[in-house]
Amino acid sequence: MNDQAESLRQLVSSMEQQDTPRTPRSARIITVSSGKGGVGKSNFTLNFALALQALNKKVLLFDADIGMANIDVLMGVRPRYNLYHLLKGERSIQEIMENGTNSLPFIAGGSGLTELFSLSESDLNYFTSQIESVSDEMDYIIFDTGAGLSKETLKFITAADECLVVTTPEPTSITDAYALIKVVGGMEAAVPFQLMINRVENEKEARQVADKISLVARKFLNIEIPMLGFMSDDAHVVQAVKKQVPFSIAYPNCYASRDVERIAAGYIAGGTTQDAGALTGIKGFLHKWLKRTK
Ligand SMILES: Nc1ncnc2c1ncn2[C@@H]1O[C@H](COP(=O)(O)OP(=O)(O)OP(=O)(O)O)[C@@H](O)[C@H]1O
Ligand SMILES: [Mg+2]
Fold first, then answer.
1. How far is the CA of 68 from the centre of ligand 2 (A)?
2. Which residues of the chain have pLDDT under 50?
3. The domain 27-289: what is its CATH number?
4. For an engineered disulfide with 138, which of 5, 23, 27, 146 has Cβ 3.0 to 4.6 Å away?
């Protein structure tokens, strides 16, 4: 593990030494997470990615749910390869990137993620250079993580540029969302959070849920957590899951589809909450990832 950390450090420092001027585009890395499972992360992430793409953004969707990877199932596609093949150096990122609905590029999950801890230096070099190579072509790389507080998920969240926390109005979901925010906050990782409230009856309910979380976060953690948006509780989502077609494609005019479109437009218009000077994008991601292996 120490050797591993050392080789990662060398890698990042050699990347810094060669520091060519930053390419104009380096993808912003976003994780979508929740405390409680089954709150709609994967459905939101997929349709949010499709909505960003429809607004001419280049998006790469990354299924980082190790246990129950299912972005492919939601699109009804069968990926030939997954992350494992990239980590093992068996395939290039171009080969493992699948075309999902509307040609959305995505990387299927797999058991491979846990292997990040036992990579050789050349595996690691390959992996990072491959991710870097696509990062420059992307505006956003979005990771759909597993629910809760696994070590891998926490690594993703703390290494990313920002974390979108999904919760429903259910009290258990709210407490678990807060618990996640608290744990990440306690790791002294300055990850900006935004809330996405799912399965609401109306905007008022969404605001009430968001206010509850932001009030407690402000009082006890001293952090501001804005609400990015909300999605209606909508039976079309369930129907679309059964059809294995993303709901915004199967039912573009349903409430949930309009909600996710509005969220994507608002997200782009809102810009980023990151300091201009901070290390962002893939290089920042690797940097922060590295810190967590010390
Ligand atoms: N806005 C919504 N309206 C109605 N039903 C919804 C909505 N969002 C999600 N669901 C229901 O919740 C189920 C779980 O959604 P999803 O798989 O996206 O959750 P998840 O948070 O990714 O779960 P996991 O924690 O297991 O990864 C969906 O199959 C659907 O039935
Ligand atoms: Mg999921």
1. 7
2. 1, 19-24, 273-277, 293-294
3. 3.40.50.300
4. 27
